[in-house]
């Protein structure tokens, strides 16, 4: 079984392959930002919660929960329990969110 610490390390290795970002530590979470926040991390005891901001409701891999937060912004929530879930499919999802948060201009 992968620990939440192991999952976090694997997540950041995957995110590093996407591009540069900033980390904003909050009380119970970590925001990953570029021009705007595009990922929220929520470390729990037995899993790593990852909230990915996209401009559409459907995504692959499918999220356990999707919330519409504005006209064209959706939060996709993932419960990551295994490093196997942090695969190429998930990397494409992160890249899409990263590109959506790019600086204007």
SSE pattern, N- to C-terminal: HEEEEEEH
* Total strand segments: 6
The helicity comes to 10-25%
What portion of residues belong to β-strands?
A: 25-35%
Overall SS class: alpha+beta
Indicate the CATH topology. Aspartate Aminotransferase, domain 1
Helical stretch tally:
2
CATH class equals Alpha Beta
Quaternary form? single chain
Quote the distance from N terminus to C terminus: 44 Å
* Domains, number: 1
Quick check: average pLDDT?
Answer: 94
Adjacency order of strands in the biggest sheet: 1-2-3-4-6-5
Sequence-ordered SSE layout with sheet pairings:
Layout (H helix, E strand, L loop, with lengths): L3 H13 L5 E4 L4 E4 L3 E7 L4 E7 L10 E6 L2 E8 L7 H13 L5
Antiparallel strand pairs: 1-2, 2-3, 3-4, 4-6, 5-6
Short précis:
By secondary structure, the protein is an alpha+beta fold.
């Amino acid at each position: 079984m992968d620990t939440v610490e192991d999952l976090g390390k694997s997540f950041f290795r995957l995110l590093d392959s996407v591009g540069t970002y900033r980390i904003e530590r909050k009380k119970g979470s970590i925001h990953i930002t570029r021009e705007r926040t595009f990922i929220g991390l929520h470390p729990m005891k037995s899993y790593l919660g990852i909230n990915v901001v996209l401009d559409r409701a459907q995504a692959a891999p499918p999220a356990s929960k999707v919330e519409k937060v504005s006209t064209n912004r959706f939060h996709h929530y993932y419960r990551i329990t295994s490093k196997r879930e942090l695969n190429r499919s998930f990397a494409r999802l992160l890249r899409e969110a990263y590109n959506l948060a790019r600086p204007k201009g």
